[in-house]
Amino acid sequence: MYQNVQEALCLSDPLRPIHSYEVIRAKVEHLTGITQIQTDMCINSCIAYTGPFESLDACPKCATSRYEHPLTTSEQRQGNAAEGEESHSNSRGIV
Predict the structure, then answer these.
(1) Distance (Å, rounded) from C-alpha 21 to C-alpha 1?
(2) Residue 46 sits in the same domain as residue 91
(3) CA-CA distance, 62 to 56, in Å (whole number)?
(4) Half-sphere exposure of 20 toward its Cβ, with a 13 Å CA cutoff?
(5) Cα atoms in the 13 Å half-sphere on the side-chain side of 12
(6) Residue 86's pLDDT is what?
(7) Phi and psi at residue 12, to the nearest 5°
(8) Domain total in the chain
(9) CB-based contacts of 53: which residues, under 8 Å, 6+ apart?
(10) DSSP state for residue 29 in the 8-state scheme
(11) Do 7 and 46 reside in the same domain of the chain?
(12) Which of 28, 52, 53, 78 counts the most CB atoms within 10 A of its CB?
């Protein structure tokens, strides 16, 4: 969305300097103190995996796996052996 506005402003006034989305986001964050919070989310937006849902591997509402590729038993054993390391990828959402 920001990119569309940025392109329109450049067309209307090509000499006007337009900041990137990242620069504007950082300025707003600095001025307001409001920051992004990233947490795992159900792919269907049912829940955020935080609080009582933090340790779940599947959504309690729609049963969709928390992770893009569910772990096999051997991967789970390897993950348990390497404590503190996350051995699988997950989807991230911004709340």
Answers:
(1) 10
(2) yes
(3) 13
(4) 3
(5) 7
(6) 47
(7) -75, -30
(8) 2
(9) 47, 60
(10) H
(11) no
(12) 53
| Torsion on CA atoms 73, 75, 81, 85, rounded to nearest 10 | -140
* Structural domain for 45, as ranges: 38-95
User: Tens digits of per-residue pLDDT, 5-31?
Assistant: 888 888 888 888 888 889 998 999 999
- Amino acid in position 84: G
pLDDT, tens digit (0-9, with 9 covering 90-100), for 60-83: 999 999 998 755 655 555 665 554
What are the two backbone dihedrals, phi and then psi, of residue 36, each rounded to the nearest 5 degrees?
-75, 145
Average pLDDT, the chain: 80
Measure the CA–CA gap between 63 and 52, rounded to whole angstroms.
Answer: 16
Same domain, 95 and 74: yes
Q: Where are the beta strands (DSSP E) in 1-95?
A: 38-39, 93-94
